[in-house]
Amino acid sequence: SHEDLSELPPHIQVQDLESQIGDFGDLVVILDQLDLVISVDSPVAHLAGALGEKTWLLLSHVADWRWMLEGETTPWYPTMRLFRQTRPGDWSGVIERVAEALHSENLKAA
Asked: What's the first-to-final CA gap in the chain, in angstroms?
């Protein structure tokens, strides 16, 4: 939410594009310009996956049936990587794995 963004430390820069999104067409234009989409299970994640955008999806311990019970991939979206909670409510573990994966991606890109 906007309130959560205002509580971030000043060295973390977030660009809020909500005012530029009128419909899914506008969202497609934005998604097409990103190197990576990181999202929870949402319409944005599904749209990014359907467009073939590189997407990392953060899933709760008991995820929706379409994500199956285990694994980091999904047959629905070949460019999507799944990050699952290992214990109910444990988002810190998910975020740690995402941070490690981001660090690895940055090392490969350098």
From this structure: 33
Question: Are the beta carbons of 61 and 84 closer than 8 angstroms?
Answer: yes
What's the predicted TM-score (pTM) here?
0.87
CA proximity to 40, closest of 95, 106, 105:
95
**Mean pLDDT for back-to-back runs of 10 residues, the chain (110 residues):** 80 87 94 96 95 97 89 95 96 96 83
**Cβ count within 10 A of residue 94:** 18
Q: How far apart are CA 16 and CA 41, in angstroms?
A: 19
Long-range residue pairs from 15-21, CB within 8 A, at least 24 positions apart, any chain: none
Which residue in this structure is represented by tokens 């660009």?
15
- Tokens 């594009």, located at residue: 17
DSSP state of 58: E
